[in-house]
Design brief:
With about 425 residues, this protein is an alpha/beta fold. It is about 35% helix and about 25% strand. It has helices spanning about 10, 35-50, 80-90, 90-100, 100-115, 130-145, 155-160, 185-195, 245, 265-270, 310-325, 365-385, 385-395, 405-425, and strands spanning about 25, 30-35, 55, 70-75, 120-130, 150-155, 170-180, 200, 205-215, 215-220, 225-230, 230-235, 250-260, 275-280, 285-290, 295-305, 330-340, 350-355, 355-360. The strands form three sheets. Strands 4, 5, 6, 7, 13, 14, 15, 16 and 17 form a nine-stranded mixed sheet that branches. A six-stranded mixed sheet has the order 8-3-2-12-19-18. The protein has a four-stranded mixed sheet with strand order 1-11-10-9, with no helix packed on it.
Length: about 425
């Protein structure tokens, strides 16, 4: 039995009955591998269209990044639209730009339609340490506004302090179309929605092989199998080599999170008066937000390759103290780590293997929104209109340089260089 990691989210999860393990052979229209956000979004969009869908999860709903992340609804991608335009051209930037707010809107639609209790709150803030970072935010804001994003508000130092009582920042950018949630409860609510519409979800059912035979995908587990015209691989950083073609297209990267003791509403509002979520603009960034029970959830610190550091507290406490000195000695009630999948381009990697196995992975730190968008695009493609899915699938993607042996040190060297630039303000 594989249970959720001992996180704040697992400790405060909504009541959810365990799903059964697959122990038989089933026929379906679509077999979805992975019950994280991408798989759940894909399955929910498909069952809403009347498809017979089976979801296979190796552990429990939201066991991976979808149930461990910072809970921030951040619009866009891990690369801004100007970068996308410079790399892929105006047509690609236009297509991706038109979809860049959609993931967040899907989340809000799901919460409303299916009455999902996941502590949703609006807005998030990007906080800048230096004048250079402020200029980059101003440039980003103008470029987003030219693409129709009407929810952005530049904040000078005093304007930012209305939302974040921290002296280390020089200003920031608020996104009124962003927000934050309890991520595991969102995943559990989406799973309940799938089942309410007739979809089947099996937990503790790790996929051991995927192949195509006589035009059907055959997805095997240790005790059963699903046969379907279409399969969708949504394992992201936790697919564990089941589909070899995907293995070198992403790198697992771990991020760490702590949650403080209960601080009380007054203390939380002293720190975050509007209860917004915040992330800074460093290359290796920190992020934080208030929880519904008035704790501070603080994350950051990455390990390329996906290893869990020996001492999460030692990694995060100094960064927390830099932002909020009054919390220098606060007690941490929960500490955990989890992996997200990074692509070389930092753009989500969507595509097909053959004609009937779809995949989506590599949201590169922007997974809360991009996964929900990806699920909708996969469902559209399966239903017959692949136009928007192919806007991503047709982009060039590359394996990490150096192969599996050298990709981590090469990436670490690059991150060190960009981190140095952040520290020097250049």
């Amino acid at each position: 039995m594989i249970n959720h990691v001992a996180s704040y989210y697992a400790a405060t999860a909504n009541l959810s009955m365990p799903r059964p393990t697959l122990t038989s052979s089933l026929e379906a229209d679509v077999c979805v591998i992975g019950a994280g956000y991408t798989g759940l979004s894909t399955a929910l969009h498909l069952v809403e269209r009347g498809y017979k869908v089976v979801v296979l999860e190796a552990a429990k709903i939201g066991w991976g990044a979808s149930g461990r992340n910072g809970g921030q609804i951040v619009n866009g991608y891990s690369r801004d639209l100007q970068n996308i335009e410079g790399r892929y051209g105006k047509k690609a930037a236009q297509a991706l730009g038109e979809m860049s707010l959609e993931g967040a809107n899907i989340i809000r639609e799901r919460i409303k339609t299916y009455n999902i209790a996941c502590d949703y709150r609006p807005t998030n803030v990007f906080a800048a340490f230096t004048g250079k970072q402020m200029r980059e935010l101003e440039h980003m804001s103008a470029h987003w506004a030219s693409r129709g994003h009407d929810g952005l508000e530049m904040l000078d130092k005093e304007g930012l302090r209305e939302h974040v009582k921290a002296d280390c920042y020089v200003g920031g950018l608020m996104d009124h179309h962003g927000g934050h949630i309890h991520p595991l409860n969102l995943a559990l609510g989406e799973a309940d929605a799938i089942q309410s519409l007739g979809g089947l979800i099996f937990e503790q059912s790790a996929v051991t092989s995927v192949k195509t035979e006589n035009g059907k995908a055959i997805v095997k587990t240790a005790k059963g199998e699903v046969r379907a015209p279409v399969a969708v691989a949504c394992g992201n950083a936790y697919l564990n080599g089941v589909i070899p073609f995907l293995t070198d297209k992403v790198m697992p990267v771990s991020t760490q999170i702590v949650t403080t003791e209960v601080l009380g509403e007054n203390k939380i509002r002293d720190l975050l008066p509007t209860l917004t979520a915040v992330e800074d603009t460093n290359y290796v960034l920190d992020y934080y937000r208030p929880t519904a029970d008035h704790r501070l959830l603080f994350g950051g610190g990455i390990v390329y390759g996906g290893a869990e550091p020996a001492d999460i507290e030692a990694r995060l406490r100094p960064n927390l103290a830099k932002v909020f000195p009054s919390l220098r000695n606060v007690r941490f009630d929960y500490l955990w780590s989890g992996n997200f999948a990074l692509t070389l381009t930092r753009i989500p990697h969507f595509g097909r293997i053959g004609s009937n196995i779809y995949f989506a992975h590599g949201c590169s730190g922007h997974g809360v929104t991009s996964t929900h968008l990806g699920g909708r695009l996969i469902a559209e493609a399966i239903h017959g209109d692949a136009t928007r899915f192919d806007a991503f699938a047709n982009l060039p993607y590359y394996p990490f340089p150096g192969g599996r042996a050298l990709r981590v040190p090469i990436t670490v060297a690059g991150a060190w260089w960009y981190g140095l630039r952040d520290r020097l303000g250049v």
